[in-house]
Specification:
single chain; 309 residues; alpha/beta; two-stranded antiparallel ribbon; 11 strands
Amino acid sequence: MKKLRILRTLQERGTVTATAEALHMTPSAVSQQLTGLAKSLGVTLLEAHGRRVRLTGAAELVLRHAEEVFAQLERADAELLGYLQGEAGQVQVGAFATAIPALVVPAVQELRRTHPGLTVTVREAEAEAAYELLAEGSVDLALSLAAHAPTPRDPKFSRVVLLADPMDVALPAGHPLAAEPELRLDDLANEPWIFGSSGPWAQITTAACEDAGFVPERAHAAADWSAIWAMVAAGMGVALVPRMAMRGARSGSGVALRVLSGDRPRRHVIAAARRGSEGAPGLARVLEALCQAAVAQNPDDVPLHFRRP
C-alpha cells in the first residue's frame, strides 16, 4: 500500500521531487519504491517526458483500481474505530427464557436506537448450557440466576448483578387469603403448591418457603408459567412466581397475584462474561443497556451501577 500511495502522490504532484517533499522521503527513496512496484506488477509505470517523468497508461489503470482499495481501507478504518469505541461490532448473548423478553429485548431495542452499528445476537440457553457456550466463546455474555451462576471465585468469569427480581404469590381468585392485607409465606404453609419437580424453580421455591419456616407440599409439578397460571386459576394450588416472568400478566382470569411484603423473597439475575473481556467497548455497551432494562423492570431492587459480588 505504501508504494501505491507514492504512485498516487506522484500523479497528484507531478514530479519525483515534489512527491518526496510531500511524503517526507528522499527522491532516491521514491524512485526505488516505484521501481520495486513496477517490477512486482511486471509493467512500466513511468516514462521520460523531457526532464520529468509521467505516468504510463498502465500506471493510470493501476491507480484506478488502487482508489477502490484506498476507499475500502478508509471504510475499514472507520468501522474499526467504531468497534474500538463500542459503536460497532457484534455481541452474542445467551440468556434464560424469562430474561429475554424482560431484559434482553428492551436492551437490544435501546441499542438499535442509540448504537445502530452494534449488533446483538440472542440465544436462549439455561444456566449450564449458557456457561458452556460462554467458556467456549460461542457467546460473549451469559444471563442466569445467581443460584446457578459460577461462584465469584471462578477465575474464568466476571459476574455482574443485574436485578433482584421479587417473587409474588399466585392464588386462586376465590381463595380465602386472596384479599388478606398482610399476606406472608407462612400463611400458605398448609396449601398445595405448584412448582417444578427438579431444577432451579424447585430449588428457589423450596428455599424461599424453608426461609419462612416450612417445607412446601408439592401437589403439582410444572415449569412453564402458562401451565402454572392455568393450574392456579383452576384452584389446584398456589405458586411463587417471579415478577419479571409475570410482567404483563394481571390478576384476573381466576388468579390473584399478591405481593409478599413481609417476606420479600427475591431471585438474583446475573450477567457473566469471560474474565477480562467485560471491558471491551461493545460488551460494556450491552451490559449498560441490560442494567438500564433492569432498572426499568424494578427500580427499587436494582443496583444503579454494576456490582460484582
